[in-house]
Amino acid sequence: MRAFDYRRAHSPEDAARLTQAPEAMLIAGGTNLLDLMKLQVETPELLADIGRIGFAEIIDTDDGGLSIGALATNTAVAIHPRVRRDYPVLARAILAGATQQLRNRATTGGNLCQRTRCFYFTDIDQPCNKREPGSGCGAIGGVNKLHAVLGASDHCIATYPGDMAVAMAALDARVIIGAADGQQRSVPVRDFHRLPGDTPWRDNVLDPGEVILAVELPAPLEGMQIYRKVRERSSYAFALVSIAAVIAVENGAITRAELAFGGLAHKPWHDPRISELLVGSAPSAELFDRAADLLLESAEGQGDNDFKIPLARRALHAVLAQVMEQAA
Amino acid sequence: MASELIVNGRPHRLPDDPRVSLLDYLRHDLGLTGTKKGCDHGQCGACTVIVNGLRINSCLSLAVMHDGDQITTIEGLGTPEAPSPLQRAFLAHDGFQCGYCTPGQICSATAMLDEIANGWPSDASASLEGRFEPTGEEIRERMSGNLCRCGAYANIVAAIADVATESDA
After folding, report:
1. Residue from A41, A73, A101 whose CB has the most chain B CBs within 10 Å, to mutate
2. Do B42 and A101 touch (CB under 8 A)?
3. Which of B54, B115, B144 sits opposite A236 (nearest CB)?
4. A246 vs chain B: nearest CA distance in angstroms?
5. In this predicted complex, what is the ipTM?
6. What's chain B's Rg over C-alpha atoms?
7. pLDDT at position B169, please?
8. HEC readout, chain A
9. Which of 228-287 (A) contact B at CB < 8 A?
10. What is the pLDDT of residue A328?
11. Is the confidence at residue A318, as pLDDT, over 70?
12. How many Cα atoms sit within 13 Å of A323 on the Cβ side?
C-alpha cells in the first residue's frame, strides 16, 4: 500500500472540503477501498475517515418513507424492522451480497460507490480505461464472463457489481448529496450511476467535493417484492444476473411492475418501457417474453458473457412466474 | 480523540503508520498471532475478529480507524485450560485439519450465534421475520465468509450446530 495521510473528518461539509483535492478520498467501512489500495488500483494521498461523522440513522420521513443515513451499515439496513416489513426487496438484496463480516462494515454510501470487479480494472498490469484513461480495455476481446451486455461502450464493458442499489432502483429511491458549502441536491438512484461512454472512469454523478448524506426510500409500495440473484455459487458471489421487482396484481391484471436488473450493465438497469408494457395486462408467458424482448432489445454479448442474454430472459420469466404463483 | 483501542480488555496505543491494517496491528504490534492472515483481501475470513460485538475482516480495516473500539480476538474467547463452548465443540467434532482457518471460524461463529439469538435474518431464511433456527442451511450461509481449504466444513457445521442447540435449550 502506498503511503498516505490519514485524517478524520468531523462533518459532511468537512469531508466534502477534504475531497475537493483530486488526490484525496473518503473512507467509511473501507471494505472495497482498502482492498483496491492494497492492489494499488487506488493510491490516494489523503484518506479522510468519515466513520465517526454520524449520518448512520435510519429514520421515518414525513411522507411515510424512510431515510437511510449514508453511514448506516448494510447490516443495520437489512435488520431494520421497517426495511424488513416495508422494503423486503432491499433487505433481501443486501443479505444476498457479500458476507456478514463485510456487511457489518460496509456502509450505504460506500456500497453505492463500490467499484467494478472487472479483472482488468483490479490488475494494474492490464490496460483499463476506467483505472487509467486512454490505456485501452483489456476485457473487450479478453476474459469477460462477468461483463456488461447492456449499455457498454468501446471504452469499457464493466458492470456495476452491487445488489443493494438494484433494489433501491426498483424502489425508485433517491440519493441525497451534500457539498462543502452545505448545499444539497437529490438524484434518483436510477440516475446516480452512469453508463461508461467515453468517460468510464466516472462511475456515478458525484462531483469532487460532494458526499452522499442519505438514501431516501419513498412511502412503501403495494405489491410483492422479490430479489432474485443468479450466481456461480450459492453464497458470497457477485450476481451474473439479478432482478429486483416490486409487482402488484389485481383482478387478474398487473397494476404495478417496477423492475431493476443487476449484473447486466455499468449501472443498475431500469427500463421504463417494461413497466409500461406489463401494467394493465394479464400475466402470461407470452407477455413475459415480450418484456424480456424489450429488456434485451439492444443486448450485445462479448463472448464469455453471451450466456447472460438468455439467462436474463429466464430469470425474468422465473420472477414473473413467482409473482403469478403468489398472486393465485 | 482517543488514541488507543481495547483488545481483549486491555488498552493499546494506536500505530503511528496509518497503513497498518487491524490484522497486522494485532499480529505484529501486539503479538496476538491467533488471528490469521489468509488472503488479506476479505475473501477467506481467517482474520475475522469481533469489534464492538460485530464480526469483521481485520485485514480490510486500518488500525487507526478503531480508536476507542473494543476488539475481541481468539485469545480473548478462551484459553487451553478454559476454552469457550465453541472452542470445545471444534475439538470434540474435529472441526479442522490444518487449523489455520480455525481462529477466524470460531470468532465468526461466536458472533453468528449472537446474530441468530438477536433475530437477524440471513439469505437462507425463508422469512425475514421471527425466530431463526440454526439449521445446517442457515449455518452454511451465515458462515460463508469463512473458507476452509482443508474442507472440514461438515465437522465445522456440526460443531457450531452443537453449541447453537445447546445455548438454545
Report:
1. A101
2. yes
3. B144
4. 17
5. 0.97
6. 16
7. 45
8. CCCCEEEECCCHHHHHHHCCCCCEEEECCCCCHHHHHHCCCCCCCEEEECCCCCCCCEEECCCCCEEEECCCEHHHHHHCHHHHHHCHHHHHHHHCCCCHHHHHHCEHHHHHCCCCCCCCCCCCCCCECCCCCCCCECCCCCCCCCCCCCCCCCCCCCCCCCCHHHHHHHCCCEEEEEECCCCEEEEEHHHHECCCCCCCCCCECCCCCEEEEEEEECCCCCCEEEEEEECCCCCCCCCCEEEEEEEEEECCEEEEEEEEEECCCCCCECCHHHHHHHCCCCCCHHHHHHHHHHHHCCCCCCCCCCCHHHHHHHHHHHHHHHHHHHHC
9. 234-236
10. 79
11. yes
12. 34
**Where do the CATH 3.10.20.30 domains begin and end in chain B?**
4-77
Q: At the fourth CATH level, which superfamily is domain B4-77?
A: Beta-grasp domain (3.10.20.30)
Q: Minimal CA–CA distance to A17: which of A175, A212, A208?
A: A208
Nearest CA distance, A197 vs chain B (angstrom): 30
Question: Any chain B CB within 8 A of the CB of A91?
Answer: yes
Question: Between chains, do B112 and A84 touch, taking CB under 8 Å as contact?
Answer: no
Question: In this predicted model, what pLDDT tens digit does every residue of A207-235 receive, in sequence order?
Answer: 999 999 999 999 999 999 999 999 999 99
A69: exposed, middle or buried (Cβ count in 10 Å: 0-12, 13-18, 19+): buried
Chain A residue numbers touching B125 (CB-CB < 8 A): 95
**Residue B151 confidence class, pLDDT cut points 50, 70, 90:** very high
- CATH 1.10.150.120 positions along chain B are 85-168
Model pLDDT for residues B84-93, shown as the tens digit of each residue: 999 999 999 9
Residue B148 CB contacts under 8 Å (≥ 6 apart), including other chains? B96, B101, B105, B156
User: Looking at chain B, which residue has its C-alpha nearest residue A90?
Assistant: B128
Average pLDDT, integer, range A174-197: 97
Mention the CATH class of domain B85-168. mainly alpha
Which residues does chain B have within 8 Å of residue A236's beta carbon, measured at their own beta carbons? 144-145
| Residue A188 near residue A294 (C-beta atoms within 8 A) | no
CB-CB: which of B62, B112, B142 is closest to A30?
Answer: B62
